[in-house]
């Protein structure tokens, strides 16, 4: 065999799992289709990143109407986390249960928050999260403290925090995986949507993968595209077939390629014994695709400037949980500071006007839950990925945006505008290989083990039964730690 464990993908799930398994001493091989991001002159160039899209892969998928589009997913060591906003937020305790929304009721999880809490704590330690467990009305129980205090507000964000508090809101710090001093030493920009080619952000590469590769038994191979998984007559996965025709074998195979690519790989691995794809006895592989409902909301006063550089330190969960007269609406957090080039690239405004607006705007990210729907799915069409996203719960998101706008006007911003994110923006894709107790309605069990293949695990956002309404990166890492502990105790024992 080429390894004891093969992990396909080096994003948040794959990298964290590798870190969990590395101390076992077993041979772990991580396969990544991309390469390491290398420092370059355009790392902090907003025109190159947002206008020219130099880091976006040259890739084409089909939408539900078979129209081609560029999805904006990244393929490199560390996956999409290399560009993420580093918000490492726990799902709220209620998210693990059944929650009624205007667009429907969520199905709940096969585990509750308490079963994952210790793994959340361990993930926060691994990713050096800066945060505070006080001040947020929805913050769940923590068994320990954050390893570092919150990233500090800039002076204008401090003033914003006071304004929001005066209109009855309860702003709290965003838990962040950012070393502010190191990040700003590379350039005076935010980190949100900028590539991390140093060590300023704690992403999958600088966090979990760095820890894993400090062990001699862990190896990373880049530029390895896995075309299909090989299965023997007993249903055991015996290896991963690469695009170059090479097949690598191992005792355990873990797929962690992301919600869309994981589903595509399992479907592409269909054979005579498994004509609908691997791990798909339930016919749930590729189904229940979710992508958060998101909008950018800009609040400004024409005679006041926002001098912030990074801005992304404040969030609001006042509208997250249902109340007697209002349903659950979602999370609000600051975007990384929008500048003129970023605004011009995303709005079509002339540059002079974009510069004027951005210099005065406070920029928010409103995020609502997208509900699982079996017809919202990933399929293959002549070998090409088809993503038919059936957006749900949009009325709740519209209500969140209206409510936020009203509060911002009360807080002293006469001009508040919003723009929803479209399907070219991957806003936390998840759900295509969901976790559950029943093999007839789910793909993996609560330890991320396939119901159909005992040595196949899926450890990425595809296993999330619901999307909740906060960033999923920390939950993916916590699930990977839980799965890693299970694999070490049941599969890699001496």
Automatic annotation (TrEMBL):
Keyword field: FAD, Flavoprotein, Oxidoreductase
Species whose genome carries this gene: Marivita hallyeonensis
Annotated TM spans: none
Name this protein carries in UniProt: Choline dehydrogenase
Domain Glucose-methanol-choline oxidoreductase C-terminal residues, every copy: 372-480
Similarity-based family: Belongs to the GMC oxidoreductase family.
Entry coiled-coil feature ranges: none
Domain Glucose-methanol-choline oxidoreductase N-terminal: 201-293
GO MF annotation list: oxidoreductase activity, acting on CH-OH group of donors
PANTHER family: LONG-CHAIN-ALCOHOL OXIDASE
SUPFAM superfamilies assigned to the protein according to its UniProt record, in alphabetical order: FAD/NAD(P)-binding domain (SSF51905)
